[in-house]
Structures are given as structure tokens and as C-alpha cells.
Amino acid sequence: MVFSVADAVGLVAAVLTTASFWPQVRHTWRTRDVSGISLGMYCVLAAGIVCWLAYGILLRAVPVIAANVVTLVLVAVILVMKLRFQA
User: Fold this and answer.
1) What's the CATH number of domain 5-85, 1.20.1280.290, 3.40.720.10, 2.60.120.430, 3.55.40.20?
2) Any signal peptide, and if so, which residues (predicted)?
3) Whole-prediction pTM
4) 18-22, Cβ contacts within 8 angstroms, sequence gap of 24 or more
């Protein structure tokens, strides 16, 4: 499998943007503090990620698919914690 420069840039972007959700997941899990998390924002974000995932599937773009699957899982975890831990 040969990667182009565009593929490499896409993979780096995918890793960085997906990894950006991990600190929020870890912090929320440890503290159970969901007061600073906007339910509406994360619902809209999840819908956007589903659209990007569909787009990646239609294009058969592995970096787009992989990044959005992982990001959707992380966002879903945050949403579940928001619903479970809110007072």
C-alpha cells in the first residue's frame, strides 16, 4: 500500500483531531463533572460526525472512516457520561 502526501496529511489530521477528545473523556470519567459540557453541542457534533462517516464510506476513504468511527465512539462516551452524571 502506497501513501501519498495527501494521505499522510489526512492521517495526521485524523489522529490529531480524534485524539483531541481523549482528554475530555478522561477528565469527565475521573471527575464525573459534566457541568461544563454542552449536551446540545455534543449532539450536533455527533450528527456531524455521522455525516462525515457516511461521506468517508461513500468515498471509501479509509482515513476519514477510521477517524470518524473513533471520534464518534469518544463523543458517544462523553454524551453517555453527560446524561448519566448530570444532577
Assistant:
1) 1.20.1280.290
2) none
3) 0.85
4) 18/67, 18/70, 18/71, 18/74, 21/71, 21/74, 21/75, 21/78, 22/74
